[in-house]
Fold this protein.
Amino acid sequence: MTDKVFPNWQPKNSELFSKHLISEQHSLHKHELFSDEALARLIEKTPRSNYHVNTHDLKHIHKSTWRDGEFGNLSGEQVLQAVKDGHIWINIQRPWEADSAYGDILAQMFDEIEENVPDFTTIKDKNKMTILISSPKIKVFYHCDIPGQALWQIRGRKRVYIYPNSAPFLQDSEMEKIILGRIDEHDISYQDWFDEHAAIMDLEPGTMAHWPINGPHRIENLDVVNVSLTTEHWNAELRNHYAVNYANGLLRNSFGMQNLSKPTSGLGLYARLALAGFHKISGLRKLKKMDYKVDFRVDPEEKLGFKDISAYTMAK
Ligand SMILES: [Fe+2]
């Protein structure tokens, strides 16, 4: 692709990027890699290890009601039809492993952000893209993400609620537990009144949103099928922030320390980088085991887009 990902980058976003919530126009909704036909082929090429298809309870949207499914032997078009008419979402991870063209466009996306944002340099082999294809009215419960994140709308419309990345919206102790792998990112505390403090953004095709690191958010698809991308990135500043939270989590959980500072330079930072690095390398970090119970198969003939099957376990 010779066209720019960001045809009209706004100069103000060069100053706001990563510090405040921004939206910027992109051209990926017109890119051939994200047409329905290309996505159908990608679905067919994606190995089992690189996708999830999920549904959530119609009333209780918390992650505890999420179910995992499988595509079975459907064509890509049949899977897309089930998403359009049903109540499921698909998450295609590492699409460049199925088709390297997705890796090329991912590299271009970050090259252009780096050209536009002074002093912003990502760690290239850690940049990631995930493709989300989701039914009308699907919701994603309140959570925070650990890496730098952006959300890119390709088709359909969704409403994104983005909250401040500090207490009470995000408690240090909870984020540290996520980083240590002791709780899930969807387990952070949420109260209805938080919404009074949320920035609310309706994403249209061709819009990208980016917000400050770890900013909690929740998402509601409007009454239309959605295709979106999420990207993840790391740079030196985010890596240090991660290590400080990791080390503070150890100090709080293992040594009972409170009122922990979050140094961004000097000895306090270096001590935490060393503590986090030692703990991780020495294998002391116990990640939660990722076993998924798969109990439905996508089916475009069914009202909700899937039918129940005998449950089996998929380890990932
Ligand atoms: Fe997220």
Summary: The longest helix spans residues 236-255. The radius of gyration is 20 Å. The chain is about 25% helix and 25% strand. The chain has one domain: 11-234+286-315.
